[in-house]
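Example record

The entry below shows one chain as it appears in the dataset: sequence first, then C-alpha cells.
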Amino acid sequence: MKLLVGPPASGKTTRLLERAQETLAQRKRVWWIGLPHQRAYVYRRATERGGVIGLEVMSFQRAYYRLLTSNYGLKPILTGSGRVALVGEALRDSEDRALPGPGEARLFARAVAEAKRFGLRPEQIPASDFEARRFVQVYRRYEELKTTWGRWDYDDFRLEALRLVESGKYALEDGLELLVVDGFRELTPVEVRFLEALARRIQVWVALPEVWGNLEASETLPARDPQVQTYRAPNPVSEARWVLRSLKRDLAEGMNPLDLAVVAPENRQAALLTLADEYGVPLIEQTPKTAADTPEGRLLLSLLELPDYPTPSKLLAVPELLPLGRAALERGLAGREPIGRLAAELGLVDFWQGWMDRLEPGSDTLRWARGLLDSLPQIRGARRELLLERAKEAGRIASGPAFRPWWAALIAETYEPARPPGGVALLTPTLASGTRYKRLYLTYAVEGAYRVGEQEDYFIPEEDRIALEALFGRIGLPRRFQGRDRLLLAELRTRAEEVIITYPEADQERQNVPEPALVRGRASRLGEVPPGSALEVGEGIPYRAKLSSLPLGNATVEELRYYEDCPFRFWIERRLGTHDPPPWWRGLVRELGQVQRLNEARLEVLKARFAEAAGWLERFRERLFALTFGLVLPAQGELQARIDAGLNRGGEVSLYTFTAPGAVEPKEFLRGRWSELWLAGYLLERNPRQVRSVRIFVWPVLGEPMEVYETPITPENKPVKRQIEHRAIKVQEVWERFGKGDVSPNPGFRCRACGVRDVCREGKVG
C-alpha cells in the first residue's frame, strides 16, 4: 500500500488524479474511495479535460458491498433505523424490564457501532463499571437477535469484507487495477487492514494529512500557503449580508456557481438561506436530510406527536382540526388539557376526541399504521412504503401508546438520498472536508464555532481506551480526545484557492473572540461591495405608489366597516382575493343562505354534509324552519346590509347573526359590527307601519341563540336609539368616502396582522 502524505491543499488529490488518469489510459478500471459528499467533486475534477471511462467514485461501504457481491457473500441489510429498533429489543430482553425509550436505544446503538467499527466483539470490551457491563450485555443480545433475524448491519459488511480479502480467496471485478483513498483525516485499523490486504492484488494509494500508527509515507508533499483574507463585521447580520453581496458580485462577474462555496456552523445556516432569497443567490444547502424533514414525514410526525403534546402547528396539520388549531394559535395554548378545554368551548370536542381515539394504536400496530397512512392522501407511492417499513421495525419492539414515539424516532433515523441541485454550496465543516473550490467564504469564525465535538463516552471511560496509533498492535477502543480540532481548522483555511474568512465582533449575547487558528493577525473591516438586494438599492427614499382614487364598486354595511379600518387593505384583498379559507361553520351558514328556507329534505342534506352540526340542526329544526336565511336588505338601493337570518312576526322583526362555535358575549360581539344596528334603524325609520320593533340575536353555531338587548328595539328605546343614530352617521360618512374611491393606507397596530403589509410598505407606511 502506497501512502501519500501532505497537509491540506498540498496537491494530494491532483497527484492521485494523475495516477488514476495513467491507469485509465491503459483501459484499466479505478475505484476511488472518498467521503459520500465528495463524489460529484471528484468526477468534476476528473473530467476537466474530457470524459473518462472506468473511474468509479464510491464510499468504503459501497466498496464492501461490491466485493461481497462479486463473491456471493451478502445478507439482507439492517439499516440504521433497524439497528436502533433491534438495540431497543436487546435492551428490553437483556434487562427484563419495561420498554426503553428511543433515545436510550439510540445511545446504545451508537456505542455498538463504534465497537464494531474497530472490530471489537462483546467479550473484548473493557467492563470496569456497571454501565460498561450493561453495554456488553446489550451488545451481546443485539448480536444474537441480529443473527436469528439473518441480517447484517453496516459494520458486518465491513468485517466480512475484511475477512474475505485477508483470506486471499476472492475475485475482483474484471479490469480493476487501482484503488485510491482520498479525503479522510484518519483511517481506522480495520480500514487499514482491508486496504493492505487488497494491496497484495492491486495498486492501492492512500492520501492522509499526517503519518500515524505503523504506516510509512511513500511520498510526501510540501505545504502550500493558501491565499486567505480575513474580515470583521459589526454583527452576524452585517456579516451575512456582506457575504451574500459578495456572492452576487462573483456570479455577476461570471464565476461558475460550482466554484463557489460558503461554510457556516449548522445553527447559522437557516439565516443565510433566508437572506439568500432576498439577494437572489442560488445558495444550496448540502446537509443530509432525514425522512422527518420531508413534507410527508413532517405531516406524519405531527400526527404521531399530537396525542402526547398537542400544539397549534400540529393541529393545523389536520384539516378537520383547523378551527381548533387557529383558536389555539390565537390564544397561545398548547398541551392536551388546555386544548381539550378549548375544544369543548368551541363545540369541537367530538372531533377532538375522535382524533385522539383514532391516534391511539390498537393491538395490531401494523394494521393501525396502514390505516393511518391510508387516511393521508398526501402520503403515497414509495414514500408510503418507506414510512410503513419504519412502522414494521417499530412494531418489533413497541405496541400500544409506546408504538407512536418509536415509529417517530425511526423515521428521524432514516436518511434521504442526497442529490442537491447545482448552485453555490452551503457547507458544514464536515461537508467541506475532501473538496476544494476557487473561492470560499468561511463565516462566523469565532472561538468555539468550529469543533470536531470530542467528548467522553458514556459507557467506556477514557482510562479504559488507548491511543489511536497503538490500535495497530492491540485490540481496543481509541481515546475520544485526540486533538482533532487542529486538523479540522487547518483544513478549513485551505478549502479553496482563495479563502475569505469573516467573523462578527459581537452578537446579541456577547462580544466575540475570533478563532486564532483561522483569524491570524488583525482582520480588516468589511470592504465595500455593490448592493445585491433590491432593498439596498436607492438613495434612502422609499418608493411611494400614486394612490389616486379608484372605482371600488358596491359594498355592504359590514364591508364598509372593514374598509374604514384600512381602505388600502380592503382594496387589495378584494382585488387579489387574498382571504383565508372559511371555517366549516361558515360553510354551513353559506349553504343556509343559498337555500333561504329549510324543509325536511334540505335539512337532511345539511345534516349529512355537516355531520358535526347534525345534532344542533335537529335540536333547533322548528326555529330554523321559521327563518329566512341570507337576507339582503333593503332589497333595492345602493347601501345594503347582509344578515344571516331574519323573521317578521306581526311587525316584530328578529335579526340573527351566526358566530363561531363557543362562548360569546352578545353585546361585546355586536360592538365590533355595523350591520345589525344600522339595519334596525333603517327598518324602524323607513317602514314604521310594517316594523314596530326589532330584536337582535347572536347565535353561536352548535349553541343557543342569545338576544342582545333585554327588550325589543323601538323608536322610544332611548339608549339603543342613540347607538343606532351614531352608527347611521358613521356608515354615511364612510359610504361617502368609499364612493370617492379613496384607498389610502391607515397604518397602525393593525399592520402587525395584515397579510398585505409588504405591498403597503412600498406604498405608504405612515
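Notes for this example: The first helix runs from residue 12 to 25. Confidence is low (pLDDT under 50) at residues 762-766.
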